[in-house]
Design goal:
The chain is of the alpha/beta class and about 400 residues long. The protein has 15 helices and 13 strands. The chain folds into 2 domains: about 140 residues, Nucleotidyltransferase, domain 5 (2-Layer Sandwich); about 180 residues, Nucleotidyltransferase, domain 5 (2-Layer Sandwich). The chain binds adenosine monophosphate. The site of adenosine monophosphate (AMP) has 12 residues, from helix 10 and helix 12. The site of adenosine monophosphate has 12 residues, from helix 10 and helix 12. Its EC number is 2.7.2.1.
Amino acid sequence: MSAPVLVVNSGSSSIKYQLVDGETLQASTSGLIERVGQSESILTHRHGDERTERTAHIADHAAGLEAVVAAFEEHGTPLADAGLIAVAHRVVHGGERFVQPVVVDDEVEAAIDRLSSLAPLHNPANLEGIRVARKLFPRLPQVAVFDTAFHATVPERAHLYAVPASWREDHGVRRYGFHGTSHAYVSRKAAEMLGRHPKEVNVIVAHLGNGASVTAVERGRSIDTSMGLTPLEGLVMGTRSGDIDPAIVFHMHRSTGASFADLDDALNKESGMLALAGQIDMRVVEAAAEGGDRAAQIALEIYCYRIRKYIGAYIAALGGADAIAFTAGIGENSAEVRAGALGSLTALGVRLDEAANAAGGPVISTPGSPITVMVVPTNEEGEIAAQTTALLRN
Ligand code: AMP
């Protein structure tokens, strides 16, 4: 493996990791610790074809990363002997400052901490992983790669909200966008599949996982994206509402006395497909809809309709698209969602090949379709490793 990078994605109660070759972007080893801080944490570790699962009490992120080091010692190459060039960390919010990956020092750590007000659910957990890894691997560069960075090119017409100037100037209120590493990777791959340079093509990427966003990529640069100040805006997601009239928040506050913290939780954790269909997992929603469940049927319709509206808007924003790429858990696996999302876009140049779509692609439009539609598996960890390798080379 050349230039291996340990990619770490620390959530509030989970740690995902991959050992990625910075050249080929292939992962030789990967794993996940779930329920960090609870009495029964689960560590799943994969090395090649070998998969091990262990239950233990992992009290915090420090204990979690120590368990990761131990797992590498038991299965695969110990990290100390792996020739690591860096530990790379996914950081959700980079604000206006971090538009590129950066080597972490105390000052960068403090800046990521200050950005926690914009991403209270994510940045503190990301930072915890960085702090622990700096202690555990003191001689290795720790690199932060930001989910927002790819969207730094979104112009003012798309990133400014029409709100009071003091909100924008003193409180950082603007569209930042997220899933940047995925949108960057998938849009590049889509260009590759078209046999063109990324700078020659316009691509719309629909990243449809538990979190979901659509991005308009003009000649390799993000020019609009559906998530905003936070990951709440845009598409209907597993538990997030996506776009709503902001006055709903005030209405519910006045009508029920619910606090803003409660309403924040309701829109982030109790809305989306969970609220509409009673289920987060799209496979379960699809099965229920198939079985005649009316709530599941309408939830699917709403889910697809929102994607379709964004795709239509982004074809307009781009002045025409060369490709639409579907990615992430739902985008890569659900032929039904892809077909539903593209439903009436024929007039805009989308001709779906139903058999190719049912077979999962990679190209799912007809040969003559003005816009090529494709399924592109994302590789966020690979992209983080690639950006880390590029940063350290310069
Ligand atoms: P991600 O956040 O990218 O891991 O995606 C998670 C989502 O992908 C969940 O809502 C899963 O239900 C969904 N998913 C995974 N496999 C399938 C499938 N075969 N059909 C529909 N949805 C799927």
